[in-house]
Write a structure and sequence with these properties.
With 419 residues, the protein is α/β, with parallel strands linked by helices. The protein is built from 15 helices and 13 strands. Helix 6 links the parallel strand 3 and strand 4. It binds pyridoxal-5'-phosphate.
Length: 419
């Protein structure tokens, strides 16, 4: 499976231990809700219907009558630098010149751009209408027997699996009381796993911002190999992390293990409305994935924008440097006495978002989310992650000026503590 052309720098990074994985740290104690016990299939406890993913200022605007542009959205984890200028130009050109034609069906240019940026062969790459579409197709590309997800995590793994008719095994691995240490492996009841299991890992994990070490991912990939299954690593937020080279699963894939990597381009390149994601897999898996997708699934404008964005190496460096700095600033400000210091405690995170505990008993997550929305600031109520209850919100890392608006709103709320 796969070609053995792992970039030198990735090989050198193999074996690095990173924040987020301690093989022995596994005590979930009384915080395990019991819904995700080993061997217990989840029959709906992890169903998030009725809760949104965040990122919906339109719904708030429709209810409040305030234009959606007046809302400051901390609920969706999108690059605050926006789209690279070259990608905007390419999108405009494509709209003008290509809208009257069907897209080039193999997405040759886009796949070549990704191949060059990620140092992988283009034949390993499949384009999707957002990472979401690729998750969905991955669940349908073979006769899988179950899906395994490490919770709390992005809900679409379980949803996509269910849409494909698969039972979902939820294993608690990212409990916030035990972060940043998280052991996926201790949670995995290997002998009990069905053959042809689809194992999902979010790297870094949404909503906790935890990075999983490559050693842990390698063990999971070997288990997937034993079970004739597939390890699906969602690296949609990894491009935001300076640790990307050490933490990507591409070297595992190109060492011949059954790994499929999914990367969203919508977050890092600031274009969630355009929809664009790419999967990297062994050529035969890539072929099967392509066959599970409809023709022309990516529009020409998104493909052109993605092709241009992937060339922008400086943009990535700038994004990582700024967002790391702005994350540190946000943590410091949130925990300072002046604004929300007695209200919120962000958890250690490696990503461009912060899972944040509400430490004041005066507020639940829905109350705080609603109060902030009245201040025209949107945050992600984490109630939809069952193990987080009503005690957590998630905040995207945004520019300092936007952070100051959030902090001012929090200060106003802490001055009058009753919701
Ligand atoms: C972890 C994760 N993966 C994938 C997606 C979907 O990305 P896309 O916009 O490319 O469909 C999201 C969206 O929030 C996400 O949080």
């Amino acid at each position: 499976m796969g070609k053995k052309n792992i970039p030198e720098n990735n090989l050198a990074a193999e074996g690095l231990t990173v924040e987020g994985f301690t093989p022995t740290d596994h005590d979930h104690g009384s915080h395990d809700h019991g819904n995700y016990d080993h061997g217990n299939y989840d029959h709906g406890n992890y169903d998030h219907s009725g809760h949104d993913h965040g990122g919906n200022p339109f719904a708030h605007a429709a209810l409040s009558g305030v234009p959606y542009t007046s809302y400051l959205d901390f609920s969706a984890n999108i690059n605050p630098l926006g789209m690279p200028k070259s990608a905007i130009r390419a999108a405009r050109k494509a709209l003008a010149e290509l809208s009257g034609h069907y897209p080039e069906p193999t997405y040759h240019e886009l796949r070549q751009a990704a191949a060059a940026a990620w140092e992988v062969p283009a034949e390993n790459i499949v384009a999707g209408n957002g990472a979401g579409e690729l998750l969905d197709a991955t669940c349908r590309l073979a006769a899988w027997q179950e899906a395994v997800v490490f919770t709390p995590t992005y809900s679409e793994y379980a949803r996509a699996a269910r849409r494909a008719g698969l039972p979902v095994r939820c294993l608690p691995a990212f409990h916030p009381d035990h972060l940043p240490s998280s052991s996926l492996l201790k949670e995995l009841p290997t002998p009990e796993l069905k053959p042809r299991s689809l194992i999902f890992v979010c790297q870094p994990n949404n909503p906790t911002g935890t990075l999983v070490s490559r050693e842990a991912l390698a063990v999971l990939a070997r288990i997937a190999a034993q079970k004739e299954g597939l390890l699906v690593v969602d690296e949609s937020f990894l491009a935001f992390c300076p640790e990307e080279a050490a933490c990507s699963s591409l070297p595992l894939l190109f060492s011949g293990l059954p790994v499929l990597v999914i990367r969203s381009l919508t977050k890092i390149y600031g274009m969630p409305g355009l929809r664009l994601g790419l999967s990297i897999a062994a050529p035969e898996t890539a072929k099967a994935l392509q066959a599970a997708l409809p023709p022309w699934n990516v529009n020409s404008v998104a493909a052109a924008a993605g092709s241009a964005a992937l060339v922008e190496r400086e943009f990535l460096t700038l994004t990582r440097e700024r967002l790391t700095r702005w994350r540190v600033r946000l943590v410091k400000k949130l925990t300072s006495a002046a604004a929300g210091g007695t209200l919120l405690q962000p958890l250690p995170a490696a990503a461009n978002f912060l899972l944040t505990k509400i430490t004041s008993e005066h507020w639940s997550s829905p109350q705080l989310t609603a109060a902030l929305a009245k201040e025209l600031v949107l945050v992600r109520d984490c109630r939809s992650f069952p193990e987080l209850g009503e005690r957590y919100i998630r905040l995207a890392v945004r520019r300092p000026a936007d952070q100051d608006r959030l902090l001012a709103a929090l200060t106003r709320l802490t001055v009058r503590p009753e919701p």
